[in-house]
Amino acid sequence: MRNSSILAMGFAVSLEAEPRFARIGEMQGSVEVQFAAGDAWRQALRNMPVGERFWVRTGADARVEIELDEGSVFRLGPDSLAEVSDYTRLSTGQRITLLSLDRGLAYFTGAPSDRDAMLLGIPGAQLNVRRGTRLRLDVTEEWSHAAIVEGQTKLISPSAELDLKEGRMARLSPSRAGKFYLYDEIPSLDMDRWSESRDRALAGVNARRFPALSYGMADLEAVGTWIESSQYGAAWRPPAVEDWTPFRDGKWLWYEGLGYTWVAAETWGWLPYHHGRWAHGGEGLGWLWVPAKDPAFRAGEVYWMRAPGMAAWGPLAPGEEWRPPVRGAAQAGLPQLFLNARTTFAGFAADAREIDPAGLARRPKDALAEATFARALPSVTVAATAAARPVLRVGSTRVMPLIAGVACETPAAVAASLPEQATGTDARARPPEPAPVAAAPAVFVGVPLPPPLAAPPVETFYVAPIYTGVVVLNPQERGREPRRPREAKTAAKPPEPVGSATQPAPKPGPEPASPVQRIPRNDDRMQRNEVPAPAESRTPRQSDEVPRAERNSRKNQ
Length: 557
Known about the structure:
Blueprint: E1 18-19, E2 22-28, E3 31-34, E4 42-43, E5 49-50, E6 54-58, E7 63-67, E8 73-76, E9 81-89, E10 95-110, E11 117-122, E12 125-129, E13 133-139, E14 144-150, E15 152-157, E16 160-165, E17 169-172, E18 179-183, H1 191-203, H2 217-223, E19 225-229, E20 233-237, E21 250-255, E22 259-264, H3 271-274, E23 276-280, E24 287-291, E25 302-307, E26 310-315, E27 344-347, E28 354-355, H4 367-370, E29 372-374, H5 382-387, E30 411-414, E31 437-439, E32 445-448, E33 459-462, H6 521-530, H7 548-556
Parallel strand pairs: 10-11
Antiparallel strand pairs: 1-9, 2-5, 2-7, 3-4, 3-6, 6-9, 7-8, 8-10, 9-10, 10-13, 11-12, 12-15, 13-14, 14-17, 15-16, 17-18, 18-31, 19-20, 21-22, 21-28, 23-24, 25-26, 25-29, 26-27, 30-31, 32-33
């Protein structure tokens, strides 16, 4: 197959995928999210989980940073729209990530592991990230730009499949699939400084303590302290606040397939609520966050209580397997960390998609007297979920399934003529247009855009191969020496007996090198000079032969 790095398998759908969730981190201005196609747009919150099929859009003068679970970062500038198109973990452990920019300005910094797949989609092209890379993507109505600030990536489009190196920028137009343009320099933008400053802030994070929990670690390093506990090992201590307790500053949001998920109001409130549990250290240590050994994302591990028109919760201790008693059975033991002061109450109604303790008018004085323990809160019904989706919203950056036999052709030649001059004025500075790269006839997959409101339909082209499920990657060769070409096999000459009068057969001339596998000159010289033959395999000198020095002395006599 042309693309050996990505291979689609027919049994992809049979493998069970584990959902992943990214984090909305640093943000400024108006940022909105859409949980699923058709959901109403809502204001984004710091520490809000972002999963597969989530849309994120920014307003004028807005920006947002999305941290991925493997440590990569995806940032959006003003007036931008992007989707987390594919964000799963296969049963094999491989992580599949596809981030699609529909319009606006985006930055990416990161590197996938050897087994993971990291792709970025823009209208008219797809970028395959295989090593540490910093990218800048810029999408307008007519053009898509991909700039490689650092590293290297593979660009796949209907007109080409090539490696883009550091300092180069490609320009593509979905309406002119047969051409693309390459620039040897990247024009600077004002938002570049913001992205670079965020890269520097995250680069100083010490993630060696917990490599699997790198995202969100910068916030913990900035405000808290790490201690060594005799009972829990390494634990993180938040800044001391009087009468503070976990799972109080924030709210619960309903996520399909995940349930009620905690969104913390603390700036550092990501890892401590989704990747571990809380403990109360005592002896003046206060609350401690104990990281989980399992890196799987958790909605928020708490004990639940129910009361008429109210819900209550509190943190579970590390390793605690507490379950509420069955109705009619004897009262079970209380959760280890249960105290009335540590229990948070909020108003609750059936099919509520948000539970906010800030709106509670009255807090019970005695939780055990007015509420009972529950295994979980009732789920939001399907009818209530469907009612929240009045309008279907789909962007233009979509990926279609792989079609057998579809391949992308490489460019055939570089045209000498200059491209047509664009009409109008671009608000962003652009370098002069280089010569377009003419491509051989390419085979591509046509993806029709859904008709947006009051806009004619447009067509965007995507190059295959594009996967739908399992992705098998060829791991990079690390720490291995390159393979040497195979040497031509020659039959070993048997040694002749000593004293034989038979003259040695003339040595055969050098065999012509194989046109398929040629032995490099350096290897050939090493074979002849540097590797001596064993002593027992050398042919003795014939008895009737006279050394050259002895023959010369006889002539002179």
